[in-house]
Amino acid sequence: GQNIDQPTEMTATEGAIVQINCTYQTSGFNGLFWYQQHAGEAPTFLSYNVLDGLEEKGRFSSFLSRSKGYSYLLLKELQMKDSASYLCAVRDSNYQLIWGAGTKLIIKP
Amino acid sequence: GAVVSQHPSRVICKSGTSVKIECRSLDFQATTMFWYRQFPKQSLMLMATSNEGSKATYEQGVEKDKFLINHASLTLSTLTVTSAHPEDSSFYICSARDFDRGENSPLHFGNGTRLTVT
To answer: Is A41:A28 a contact under the CB 8 Å cutoff?
Structure first.
């Protein structure tokens, strides 16, 4: 079966750095996405990885290792507004998106 | 950037009535739109894939006669929850991809509709 695993909840301190991991087992791979979702709102796109390596976009970076079925989202200089759920999603060989359950990130002052 | 507009954002209806949710791509054409459902503290669950000019493709376990999808134009898809019951209360989200930006372009989501059936 297809499976996306990410931690249910993480806590970090304002101004610090946090890494949210995502491991996947899917039938084929056509890219991995990270989305941010604030409570009661729709997800917003953060990053996309299809090749191995690190993609940096401001305070957020996303890393992919296809051989390990592994990705992480790195958030630097954490702000209170970063408190949200972070969803990892993988596009399989049929171009279907497989979603993780999301990681709830709690930022403390 | 690509914008998807979803309406209404919140709706409360009585059990047995029907509710229509609209999803519009504002600045791009969407031959395909996706309808998701999300329960509290859970991830997105794909309900159906809406195809312009043809029948929607429903995921296993989703009743097509209960969740009617119409995709009459390249910029509009509608989801109608028929004979709604309290267990249909949920957060419904539509999304679309701007295929002109390539197959690897991300999904753009509407703001979601919070449906409460009393």
So the answer is: no
Q: Report residue A85 as tokens.
A: 């759920």
CB-based contacts of B102, cutoff 8 Å, min separation 6: none
**Cβ neighbours for A69, distance < 8 A, ≥ 6 positions apart:** A23, A24, A25, A26
How far apart are the C-alpha atoms of B52 and A105, rounded to whole Å?
37
> Measured between alpha carbons, how far is B53 from B73 in angstroms, rounded to an integer?
7
Mean of pLDDT values over B34-50: 88
Phi (first) and psi of residue A84, to 5 degrees: -175, 180
Instruction: Provide, as residue numbers in chain B, all residues whose Cβ is less than 8 Å from the Cβ of A102.
Output: 43
Q: Is B20 near chain A, with CB under 8 Å?
A: no
Within 8 A of B108 by CB-CB distance, chain A residues are 45
Interface residue B104 vs chain A (CB under 8 A): yes
Query: What does the pLDDT average to over A67-83?
Result: 97
**pLDDT band per the 50, 70, 90 thresholds, residue B51:** confident
User: In terms of DSSP bridges, do strands A60-65 and A97-99 run parallel, antiparallel, or are they unpaired?
Assistant: unpaired
In chain A, whose CA is at the least distance from the CA of B94? A42
- Separation of alpha carbons B99 and B110, rounded Å: 17
Structure tokens at B63: 């009743």
